[in-house]
Amino acid sequence: MSATAVILQNRFSNDGATILSVAVDGRMVHESWNHTVSTNDARAQMIDAFLDLWNVYCEQGLVLYVSSRTVRNLLKEQQELFDGLLIRDTITGAMFRKTWDVCSASHHKQRREKRPLPSEIEKEPTPLVVVATDASKGKNSKTVGLSAVNSCGIIKTHEMELNSIFDAELSAINFALQQFGKNVKRLEVLTDSRQAIQYIQGRTSLQST
């Protein structure tokens, strides 16, 4: 039974960057990121990819889809030189679709890895974020209110049950770290609780849950 193969190539940018992906019977056999000087250079890479496939599957036979129409037509013209080769112009059938999907997925994976879109690029960490925290607790209640506001004026609040205002002040600091401490190089926390500062610095015998 003939093998089913897809050769997919796309030019990614004006500087000649191209992605070449090759799949056979639903599995990847080759993927590469190349720089091509011209369209003919890109087509030559696809022909080389075909010849590599043919060396492996010439005895079995090969049903092939190539994304370049020019290369497809060229192979059709030379088809008498490749006994057992069938060139397809469209993707039809379950195995062809599976092979195409695997090849296409690899192609997009390479693009994201080599040239990610702006939305896929991790933002540079913010150099400095300043956050002020506070906590309040009723006399006859375990419910405490926590608040944190950063230097851009963004306010975050939270409620929870704790045994003491000391625990609440520490929880407010922890809440600030959770809300504003991601993707920052430096975080400065302002608190009006001397005991909380001393606890964090290890300069008090007070214990906290």
Description:
The chain is α/β, with parallel strands linked by helices and 209 residues long. The protein has five helices and nine strands, in the order E-E-E-H-E-H-E-H-E-E-E-H-E-H. It has two domains: 3-117, Nucleotidyltransferase, domain 5 (2-Layer Sandwich), CATH 3.30.420; 129-200, Ribonuclease H-like superfamily/Ribonuclease H (Nucleotidyltransferase, domain 5). The radius of gyration is 31 Å and the shape is rod-shaped. The N and C termini lie far apart (69 Å).
Topology of helices and strands:
Layout: E1 3-11, E2 17-24, E3 27-35, H1 39-57, E4 62-66, H2 69-77, E5 85-88, H3 94-114, E6 129-137, E7 143-150, E8 155-161, H4 165-180, E9 187-190, H5 194-200
Task: Label the structural class.
Answer: alpha/beta
CATH architecture of the largest domain: 2-Layer Sandwich
N/C terminus separation: 69 Å
The CATH class of the largest domain is Alpha Beta
User: CATH topology of the largest domain, what is it called?
Assistant: Nucleotidyltransferase, domain 5
